[in-house]
Design goal:
The structure is a homodimer.
Chain A: E1 6-9, H1 11-15, H2 25-37, E2 42-47, H3 60-63, E3 74-79, H4 82-91, E4 95-101, H5 104-111, H6 115-130, E5 138-144, H7 157-170, E6 174-179, H8 186-200, E7 204-209, H9 216-226, E8 230-233, H10 253-262, H11 271-285, H12 293-297
Parallel strand pairs in A: 1-2, 1-8, 2-3, 3-4, 4-5, 5-6, 6-7, 7-8
Helix pairs in contact in A: 2-11, 6-7, 7-8, 8-9
Protein name (chains A, B): 3-hydroxy-3-methylglutaryl-CoA lyase
Organism (chains A, B): Methylobacterium variabile
GO molecular function (chains A, B): acyltransferase activity, acyl groups converted into alkyl on transfer; hydroxymethylglutaryl-CoA lyase activity; metal ion binding
Chain lengths: ~325, ~325
């Protein structure tokens, strides 16, 4: 039996948060449903950041109406604070991801809070979660800038571990280790992740890599070696960071799925279906930065094209 | 002391062999000299393929006049056959790289020979080499399509090992394991390379990866794990393959140097100097496919910019 690896699609959140064009709710819904059809089983669907900060997410509540159609998919929402968590919960989300920055400079620029203040906000979300046990709210916590920061430069791994331990012990159900600005490298991944995995214990660890400097998939391979089996990725490699000019976005979903498949991991993902969706998304969004080697070069002749359900077979190599 | 890793620049050979524009000899010479200034210590300078097959290399003999200026650099030439090896030797090259395809289909398309016929030609080059012992001809042998083939699909690893053993025992000084069409993945690299390294024994193993499907640097990281310390790469990721439409070229030198540096390997390479060269090369070549994340996003703030020439590796092989 092949081992499973999970790609959590974040194109509808990280991918479009800086897009020039507002994507109508109906398009976002179609995007999510077609991800489901393509075999994706985890989608970060939207963000409950205030619409005046990111207008793209003005329809977060409306988009939540698609949740029943996404049964079988873990659809989560990013929440920047307690208020966002309350809104997500009210809208029907049972999975929320709260992000805090390890870098003080990034934390202050991004959410105008120190990292410790952001941890205090996390504790308020945990308190909310504890009032919701019957509904089973699952709380992921993103550790942004874990590999370095465009503003502050070096980020101390000990600080990453300290914050990871605080949120793991404090009530996080999942740790999302994020290379927000694409500073990480495979050696650093292999240094950081084993300790993070040990800190996380039974909690899942997700890696969130940006491909800003071309090392995104190399970092995925290194994280696989370290034992990580879940990754955030974005259709067409959409995304960017206001503090990383010239950056590409997240690692590309199609390319990451191809790599995982090729390496013998079962992803359940139908890459040709993703490529078809990608073409439509390009039409919807217009002029954005799209990346992706598979979209350009195609799948290899050796790639098995059998339908890939959740129990997709590993490739014979 | 940091461990050394070597990038052998193949932009002047693999990179421009399909370029639309003929690059004047003087530009090629400048390119090579500026690679030397940027700390590169191995350059594949040209190819002794007949000019009627690849017009770009019509000036291979003329370019050899730059060899004395490249002292301190191992400048090699690709040779497609015995005739090419004789020409390279006559022109003053002491390092030649002969490439044969593991895939029968690729071998026949590329050089109109079966793989066994290509091995026979290798043996004739070894015989030539043995008449040249005083001049110390170094013979690298490329094993093309070791990870798969766009024409034939799957390539049997046992055939790769068989040919590798034949050429290692038969007189090759170096094995260049090539993913000619970008079919390889990190798991495959980790499966194939340990056996290749064992077969190679004291001979150096170089990995030659194309980034066609985005896995180039992930494959480098996997090969580093396996113990490989030398890689072919191309400035601006130039290059392509007539049998891989939409392909990008070799792994990108600037990005590979950044990854190696970031991982703690000494490369001796001055990345900003490479980026300046790249800008000029883009002007010289015009409309080609240029890739590269560092060229787009820049080096991270955390990247040390101290002069790196002191770390230039001494050559073995």
């Amino acid at each position: 039996m092949p081992e499973h690896a999970i790609l959590r699609e974040v194109g509808l959140r990280d991918g479009i948060q800086m897009a020039a064009r507002f994507l109508p709710t109906e398009r976002k819904r179609e995007w999510a449903l077609r991800l489901k059809e393509a075999g994706l089983r985890e989608i970060e669907l939207t963000s409950f950041v205030p619409a005046k900060v990111v207008p793209q997410f003005a329809d977060a509540d409306a988009l939540a109406a698609a949740l029943p159609e996404l049964s079988g998919v873990t659809a989560s929402a990013l929440v920047p604070n307690l208020k966002g968590a309350e809104r997500a919960l009210a809208a029907g989300f049972t999975h929320v991801n709260y992000v805090l920055s390890i870098s003080e400079a990034h934390s202050r620029s991004n959410v105008r809070r120190s990292t410790d203040e952001a941890i205090a906000e996390f504790e308020r979300i945990v308190a909310l979660k504890r009032t919701q046990d019957g509904r089973g709210l699952v709380l992921g916590v993103g550790l942004a800038t874990s590999f370095g920061c465009t503003l502050q430069g070096h980020v101390d791994p000990d600080r990453v571990f300290e914050v990871a331990a605080k949120v793991a012990e404090g009530g996080a159900d999942e740790l999302i280790v994020a290379d927000t600005v694409g500073y990480g490298n495979p050696a650093q991944v292999k240094t950081l992740l084993p300790t993070i995995l040990a800190i996380a214990g039974e909690r899942r660890v997700v890696c969130h890599f940006h491909d800003t400097r071309g090392l995104g998939l190399a970092n995925v391979a290194a994280a696989l070696d370290a034992g990580v089996r879940a990754f955030d990725s974005s259709l067409a490699g959409l995304g960017g960071c206001p503090f990383a000019p010239g950056a590409t976005g997240n690692i590309n979903t199609e390319d990451a799925a191809f790599m995982l498949d090729s390496m013998g991991f079962a992803t359940g993902i139908d890459i040709p279906a993703l490529l078809a969706l990608r073409r439509d998304v390009e039409g919807w969004l217009g002029d954005e930065r799209y990346s992706g080697a598979i979209a350009r070069a195609g799948l290899p002749k050796t790639y098995a094209t059998a339908p890939r359900t959740a129990a997709a077979p590993a490739l014979a190599s």
